[in-house]
Structures are given as structure tokens and as C-alpha cells.
Amino acid sequence: MSTLFTDLDASPVGIETCETRLALSASLMGAWLAPLADPLTDPWAEASPTCPAELHLPLEIPIQTGLHTDTAGSLDQAFAQAALNFDPSGNGSSLLEQAARVAAATGLDGAGQTIAVIDSGIAYDHHAFGENGRSGGFGPGYRVVGGWDFAENDADPYDDAPAGYHGSHVAGLTGGLTETIDGNTFRGVAPGADLVALRVFNDAGAGNLSWIEQSLRWVYDNQDSFEFPITTVNLSLGTELTDLNREYAYSLLEDELQLLYESDILVFAAAGNGQLNLSPGADDLMYPASSPWVSAVGSVDTNGNLSGFSQRADGMFVAEGQRLQSSVPEHIQGYDGYLNDYSSLSGTSMASPQVAAASALVRQAMQQAGLEATSESILQRLQDTSVQRVDPATGISYQSLDLEAAVDFGHLADPGEGENSTPSPSVPTPMPTIDRYEGSTDGDRLQIDLRAIVNGGDVLLSDNPLDPDSSTYRLIGSQSGDPIVIDAGSGSDTLQIFGSTGNEQLTLRPTTGANAGSSLLTFAGGTLELRGFENVTFIGEGGEDRATLYDSDGNDELRSGPDRAQLTGIGFEFHLEQVDKLYVYATAGGNDTAHLTDSIHDDQLVIRPQFSSLRGGDHFQAAFGFERVFAYAENGGHDRADLGDSAADDVMSISSTRSLISGSGYRASALGFESVQATASQGGDDTVRIYVDDPNGQWHTTESLTQWTGADGTSRIARGFERSEAFENFETVPVGSQALSQAPIATQAWRSITDIQRETDEHLRSLQQLFEELAE
């Protein structure tokens, strides 16, 4: 998958290879075949397929180097090419090299597990999936033990021409193995594991989301259908997500991805190859790599630096993904009768299967050590033993696997030890404890992790998570029972907080100005006082989290939605993710702006001078004191807006797409709300204008009420305005006293303006009381 989403519907979604910036995964279209036949031809210069204007999921095409397909004229030449994946000295740091050393030292090769490759299929007759230089096969007794072709709905998931090759290349890096007569070896990371081929692209390289969804469900249903259980899934495919398509993609795949994770089946996915050409507003990672139930994998070069094309996110795993040799079907280099063809490809597609296979080795090591191998424990082991590096271009950190450290539990038997030898557990080094942290005069980067506290674990503080030499401490409560103080000192300091699955309360204040002060984090079992942090990120892990943010003296901006929020101003940035309840106070001065976005539920917007709120599902956003408020209903549901006037003279405009109210020092708009109600009850000489373009609606008007109701249930209501104007298809509609002098358009019983004003006042008093209680 990978791509543009435009007009969405529930019909099967096309998957095609398109522009370079969309490239993410599996096969080639016929247009690429002519350049492929000549390994010296640059395929990007010869073919430029275009995407139709619909939802596409392009497959991963090699980026940066094109298709490097050195033709192998003989068996020995083929393995000479494949040997380029390895450092001849035996000291290389790639996962392929590390895995070879681990197998030689410990015998760990993924045996006893099955890895599912969801891709364009596998050319299972290739020598890399056979034994002793012979062709492989399909079914019990072979390396590729089973699978399914969802494109053709049959039980033969072969990586077919003309577009097939990608799945075979990925499978080779996962677990291929074969040798030449002179000893040269092609070897994947986990050659002892069995493979399952799940084909979700047809012969032309096209597919659809439903096939991917079915393949994930197939893995869950068939996890114990083979001699060895399916433990790992690789998805070297992905799609570009924006606010327009995220809900659609999530609705198809998230439940299956969560089901696999909770069944201790790990899923790895390519991060994407579009870093240089990401669409505006698109997520940093392709989906499903961006899913919380999936581990994203990026690409690095041989020096460990992120590949220019690789998309990236903080904390993701990486592996080498440039110019890697692996198995491809025979048709790629011409039919010569020898099923031993190899080609060089680049992309995050090549990195992901290596990390997926590495997790299988860690699982095998944990099982041999008598440890419980769960999704969480395996990922934690990979993270704890990885080498942390920082991308100088973006400042994000990424994790290069140290596989030899990850499988070393201190009590694995060496290959020469007897079967009855008794393992002796290693003794971990105790983690230091602190009850206060004092920062330096430099810019500190700290990380607080609460994720373990629900299960009785510790609160952890890392003093620089981007530095591989950083220290981690256990935070223990102060002897006096007061909050634990984390003081960053002077400098520009950054704090990242991982919440728990319990309930956390967070209060963030800038370091200067009228609202300056210490920030507080309250959680089950304690409170942290946070001092001197200019940049704070909080990532909720579940529970009913609540955050209260305060502005600076300058011009501040709030951007808030149901999943993410950001408050920025001069000298500070606050970021929130997965926080259900949000309260933001812009009371220190300046000309402040708030942007509020709805949820997928039926949302209710309330806008008043100095106060706005947006509620939907479990999410609530409240903004106090902002001079300009912009609210957006763009994520679905039937959304309603309730707009109120100020004590000054206000002007209100209501249309089918946007409602706007402005007064002295006060301006607010609501975009995309199906139903809008405006009330003028606070004084001033107020005017409302209502614009509609649906001739099937109905008008109702009284001296103080103007209402339009559409045939689809939408409505536009204005009460209490001194002047009302209405327009239907740009034609004036009589309203107010002008309408009363004519025959009534409709007759119904309506509440008086006195009743409406009384209800509005009571509503505002209840809201004020609510927030006074919260402030306490």
C-alpha cells in the first residue's frame, strides 16, 4: 500500500505503482519490464506511469538507485553478487552479518517458528527456499509451508510475472539460504524459520485494502495450522495517510493489527520511501507502519545513517536498506532454467523483513532461556539492547539493532554444551534510584516513562534518551511526601513523557510571563513537579487523561483535535497525544488563536466570547481567553455548533459550509457543522445573515427567530438578533417583521426569546461552575 487518497468510498481500493514519491511496496507494472530487461538502463528514465484520480496503494519501488539488477550469468556469479551483503572480514554490523554470527555462536536461526510475508507472493521454487542448492517447493516439508493468493482467491501464492518480484526479494532477506559449490553463501536473517506466502497483489501489481485485511485475518485464524506457529508478520507495503483517509484505512485494518499484537504475533512494516516528497499534511510514516500495533522500520546506509528516502519517526527501528542482494523470480533476468536469480534493490521494504526476522531470533532465544516471549517483552528487549542514534537533519532518534546483545541472556547453552547442562541466570545491574533531579545550564533532554506503573513497575527517568551513553534512574517518592522535583535548570530544555494506561493529570506552564510557574504531573502513586522545561511532549497510553495548558504573554496558537494538541508561543512548545480532556487558558496577554477539530463522533461546539468548547465521544476540548477561534468539523458524525454573541455589536453569517461571528476584539468561525444555532442575548445591536442553497428546505420566522431546516436534517437557527437577513440561492427571503407582514411560511409552536435567554444564562452559569470546580 502507499498513496494519495482523494474521493473515498467503500468499494475495493486500487493498488498501483505510481510516482516515485508514492512508492512503497511490492511489484512492478508492465511498463517497468522493458527497462528491467537491461540492467544498465535506469527504469525511472524510461517509464512514468500515472495514477488515476482515486485511492491508490502503490507498491514499493526501489528509490534513489532505481532497480539495480546485475544479471547473473552463472551460479557462481549469482552468489558472488549475493555475497556483497556481507563484510568479508566477518566484522560487519548489518543485521544479515550479525545474524550469521549469532547462528554460528549459538545455533539461533529462527527454527520452530513461521514468518508470514504479506506481499506479492514468493517464488517458492527458488534455490534460496530449497535445500543444498536444489529448487524449493510449496507445502508441508518445504520452507514455504503454506499460504493463500487473495488476488486470485486460490491456494497458490506464487510471485508471478509480469509484475512479481518484490515478495520473493523480501522473503529471501527474511529467511533465504543456499550455497554454491565453492562455498559462497546467500543467507537471510532467519533461515531456520518456515515461511508463509500471502499474496495481496495480482500479476499486474495491483491489489486492494480488503485483500490486506483478509490476509491479516488469515494469519490470526491459521496461526497454529502448521508444524510451527506463526509468530511474525512482515508488511513491506504502506499507504500515505492524511486527515481525509485516516479513518477509512483504520476502520479496515486496525482491529486485525491489534488482534495479532495481543495474540503475541509481532507485525513489522516498512516506514516508507517518500521522505523527500511527503504530501502536505501527511503522516510522517506510511500506514500500517504508523499503527500503534505495528513496529515501523526505516532504512540506513552502511554507515548507519538514515537513507535520504527513508521516512522517519522518533524511536523507530532501522536496518540497512540500500543495494541489498536477494532472491527474485526467474522471469526478472530471463528464463535460463536455473532458479537462482538475485537482484539488488533499495528501500525500507528491504529493511523491514530483516528486523522482523531478527525478532524471531530474539523470541527463540527467550524461549530457550525459559522466559515468556510476548509482543511486549520481545519489543522491549529489542529496544533495550539497540544502539540509539540521532538524525542530525530532524533531531529524531532511531534504533539500530544489536542482535548479538539482544539474544544474549547470559545462560543460553553453547552449541557444544550437553543437553542436560543447567543454565544459570544472569544478574542484572541494579538501576540507580533518585528522589530529585537537578539539570545543568545547558539544554537538557529528559524522558519520563510511566508505562510500567500500572503493573507495579517503576517510574523511569532518562537524562538524555538520544545519547547511547545516557543514564536511566528509578524515581522514588520524596521522604516528606511532597512532589518529586525534576528541575531542568537554565537553557532550552526538552521533556518527553510517556503516560501509563491509568489516569494522569498534567498541568503545563511556560517558564516566563504572567502564567509562568512549575508544571505538575499527577499519576497513580505520586506527583512530579516539573521546572524549567520550554518544550514538553506528553503521550498518553490510555486511561482518562486530563491536561491543562497556560499561554505566554505573547501571541500564542493552539491546534487541538481528539488525538493531538499543540500550544506554541515565543520560547515554548507543548505537545499532547492521546489525551481525552484538554483545558487551555490564554489569559496572560497577546493576540491568541485557537484551532479546534472534531472527532469521528457527533460533536457539539459551543463558542462564546473568551470561552469555546468542543465535545465528541470521550473527548473534550476547552479554550479560554482566545481572541480568535476556528472550529472544524471534518471527521464525520452529525456535528452541531452553538454560537453566542458578545456585549458589543456583533455580525453573524451562517452558510452551508461556514459560520462566522465577529465583534469588538472577538472573532470565531465554525466550518463544516451540519447544524448551527446562533443566539444574541448579551446586548449590542446584532445582525445575522443566513445563506442556503438547498431549495428543498423550509423557513420559519418570528419577530426574534429565523430558522431554516434542510431535507437532510441540517438546520440554521438564529435567535434574538436585532436584524435578520436570509438568502436562498442568492435570492432574498423575507424574515422577521417583513415576513410577518406576509403569509407565514410555516406555523409551529416556538419558545419565546425570554425562555431562550434564560436557558442560555443557566447554561453559561453551569459551565462556569464546572470549570471553577476543575480549577480547584
From TrEMBL:
PROSITE patterns reported in the protein's UniProt record: SUBTILASE, SUBTILASE_ASP, SUBTILASE_SER
EC number: 3.4.21.62
Listed InterPro entries: Peptidase_S8/S53_dom, Peptidase_S8/S53_dom_sf, Peptidase_S8/S53_subtilisin, Peptidase_S8_Asp-AS, Peptidase_S8_Ser-AS, Peptidase_S8_subtilisin-rel
Segments forming a coiled coil: none
Active site positions, chain numbering: 119, 166, 349
Organism domain of life: Bacteria
GO molecular function terms attached to this record: serine-type endopeptidase activity
Keywords assigned by UniProt, alphabetized: Hydrolase, Protease, Serine protease
Annotated GO biological process: proteolysis
EC class (word): hydrolase
Alphabetical list of Pfam families matching this protein: Peptidase_S8
PANTHER family: CELL WALL-ASSOCIATED PROTEASE (PTHR43399:SF4), SUBTILISIN-RELATED (PTHR43399)
Similarity comment: family membership: Belongs to the peptidase S8 family.
Name under which the protein is recorded: Subtilisin BL
Species annotation: Neorhodopirellula pilleata
